[in-house]
Amino acid sequence: MEEGLRERKKRETRQRIADMAMGLFMMRGFEQVTVAEVARAADVSVNTVFNYFGTKEDLFLDRREEVEELQSRVVRERRSGESAVAAFRRDFLEAIEQRDWRYGLNEGSDVFGRIVGESPSLMARFRELEHEQTQRLARTLAEESDADPDDLTPHLVAAQIMDATRLLSRHAIARKLAGESWAEIIPLLRSQAERAFDLLERGISDYCVRM
């Protein structure tokens, strides 16, 4: 019971620090906020901040572990008879309808994107994150398809899926940053997503089908 309480308090402290940091970043931009200011806002010491987050960039990417696992989960949770690319089609279209954060289609994603675009260090960290997402997806595809260690197919498929979903998401966010509303963006995004997955399915529709 005592250990459970300590763990809960740690989670609450970590979340409070992350929430305060994101609020400051959204108001003033990433580069203009110091870790000391985040610590004061969260009523903790700077050392406490670094106990939970190794770098300032980690404060911005406090959900990194969850984000890195999202694509692998789509593959592991695909339905019977469903290929990897079909599972991603379904997941992406559901995210469009739900305006879900997992593909950056939620309210505030444009602000998030602008903050990243204004910070070289965050852009570098996001490139690392995207690389890790693609590698994790490739490993999951290899496991799910029982691929040979020298088989490049899981890596090729992962790269195609990740490039397609990122391109769609970035285009939607760019339009939002340009001043369009989600009501204007969503119909064309849905059409573009259907087209993108049509093209993918022509090449990899029979890969990693759940039996």
Automatic annotation (TrEMBL):
Source organism of the structure: Nonomuraea mangrovi
Q: Which InterPro entries match?
A: Homeodomain-like_sf, HTH-type_TetR-like_transc_reg, HTH_TetR
The membrane-spanning stretches of this chain are none
A Pfam family the protein falls into = TetR_N
Which key words tag this protein in UniProt?
DNA-binding, Transcription, Transcription regulation
Gene3D superfamilies given for it? Homeodomain-like, Tetracycline Repressor, domain 2
The HTH tetR-type domain covers 11-71
Q: Report which superkingdom the organism of origin falls in.
A: Bacteria
DNA-binding segment(s): 34-53
Q: What is this protein called?
A: TetR/AcrR family transcriptional regulator
